[in-house]
Amino acid sequence: MKLFKPLSFFCLILFFCSYAHAQNLELNFETSTNWFGFDGGSFSTITNPHQNTLNYSNKVGRLVKGAGKSWAGAFYDVEEPMDFITNNTFSLKVYAHKNNAKLLFKVENKANASINYSIEKTLTKSNEWETLVFDFSQIPSNAYDRITLIFDNGVVGSGGLNFTYYVDDLTLYRVGDPLPECPSNYTGNAPSTSQYELVWADEFDQDGILCHKNWTYDLGTGSQGWGNFEAQSYTNSEENVYVENGILNIVAIKKGNAYTSARIKTQQLFSLQYGKLEIRAKLPTTAGTWPAVWLLGTNNPEVGWPASGEVDVIEQFQDKSVNISTAHWQHDGSHASYGLEANIPNPTGFNTYSLEWTPNSLVTKINGTWSWEMTITNIAAFHNDFFIIINLALGGNKGAGTIDPTFSQDALEIDYIRVYKNNQGSFTLSHKDFLPKQITVVPNQTGWLISNPNNPIKRINLYNLYGQLVGAYKPNTDNYTIENEQLTNDINFIELFYGQQRTVFKLYKSN
């Protein structure tokens, strides 16, 4: 699989336990989007000109309000009417250069503009990213399939800096239902081995949606069908991706003349360099399905593909009795690849696929039996961090073949995915900016200073990498320092209680 996807990492690892559930819409600008300007509004996707800790995205949307235009804006059409029975809240990151800019956020019926509902909010900041939240719990029941954004509605624009606005990370979700708790033992119940130490895993032991600390989603159709003219549109709907009876199900479904499926990833959550990746999986059997479990280099936004490197651990095209392991990289300015087919002992059942990655080689195995190997000693791409992607595509131009005309649905099933390390390489846990903005966590000479000037910190629980409680503190102050001596591992969990709220994040032992 190929992906042109930027990402970003930083050392402090943050996980905010919010109150979102059943998200049915999540839009960013890392891949091409179908936003359109109107009435003098010019909309484009650009490299984030104001990248900082409030917004680490590589790409954002830019809306310019043209000279002499009062009602200029942009709109986005969704494939199906938005679900306001399940969901009731929009959030959106915005950036404006002028003080007190306003944003009119409207949803409407694209076939009948008289069916609409809107909320206007005033930005509280200028020259800085902020997140606006719009409460749509009172929206009348109707079919809404268009999102419209208008900044400074009724104010005549100039086309200049003060009428240039940026947007990112638009999400529709539900407020009121907490996310299911991820297992307290972060690495599940997977065993370590005499050769490797377990550092990360998802055992998929909890039914429902995915653990938000482990996975995020790619959505939509991407650019030119994710670069391969694939037929499916990716969603985060529970009919396309869910956990049931200890199994992750990624389900491709035919809907009329269209197809939906899912692609999940550890982007900005986990990456590895060297070690062992192990997946127990059952692959789909229908013609035209294209399952894959693969790694992509985290330096992709800087160097692009294939220079970032790619390793396909599981990939299957037309022949459903074989698995193809492949590496992609750049050699003398051109795409280079090396792959090999291997028979799957039980093509219709579960098998264990693994990648053993050292500074010298990549080796894949099926049920412990060698299937492919490649020397990488002098290939720079494979000496960087990579993140994990799991997806089920349909069709395309890379070998999956024609989709069975009788296709209705099929699934890629994952029992577990585990990452082990030995004394080589490293791994990284990270996230974007889920920590509430009033809370700061910064290193000092002896550890990490946690501050919350708006609300005293009532309690701090400290957990090790395996979810075991190793410390409990009741500072009842605005700030508290977690000393390095209190941190038992290089990576630790901090559970923070303040007011009636709870936040969980991870941090490294500082040097």
Structure description:
- The chain is 2% helix and 48% strand.
- The chain is mostly beta strands and 511 residues long.
- It folds into 3 domains: 20-173, Jelly Rolls; 197-429, Jelly Rolls; 440-508, Sandwich (Immunoglobulin-like), CATH 2.60.40.
- The strands form 7 sheets. Strands 13, 15, 16, 17, 18, 21, 26, 27, 28 and 30 form a 10-stranded mixed beta sheet that branches.
- The relative contact order is 0.15.
- Residues 1-23 have low confidence and may be disordered.
What's the CATH class of the largest domain, please? Mainly Beta
Largest sheet: 10 strands, mixed
Distance between the termini: 38 Å
Question: Which CATH architecture of the largest domain?
Answer: Sandwich
Round the mean pLDDT to the nearest integer and report it: 84
And the CATH topology of the largest domain? Jelly Rolls
Uncertain segments are 1-23
Number of H/I helices: 2
Please, how many domains? 3
Label the overall shape.
globular
Radius of gyration: 24 Å
* Beta-strand percentage range: over 45%
Q: What level of helicity do the residues show? A: under 10%
Which secondary-structure class do the elements indicate?
Answer: mainly beta
The total count of strands amounts to: 38
